[in-house]
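Ticket #4471: structure export looks truncated?
Reporter: QA, pipeline team
Priority: medium

Steps to reproduce: submit the single chain below to the structure queue and open the exported record.
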Amino acid sequence: PAPQAKASSKQTETIYVETDGAQGRVWGHVTMRGDRGTGTIHDWDENTLAVSVTRHGNELFAVDQNSRQYVFKLKQNKTQE
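Actual output as written to the record:
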């Protein structure tokens, strides 16, 4: 018998992202499932770009449909004193 696929225990998480790229400021939302995800970002020229995202620590590495790369830093929700 073929092995059964395990039920995915990874939760989906939608994250707002923004950064300054080579073409200026970009922002949007990505939906993560574990350490990988996809999303849509926008720039000041009103372009909408699809991105594939990989989480590396507290950063998200994204590549858009034109092979441009972006790094989004995740903000910490905890306040440090």
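Status: closed, not a bug. The export was complete when the record was re-opened. Leaving a note from the reviewer for reference: The chain is about 0% helix and 60% strand.
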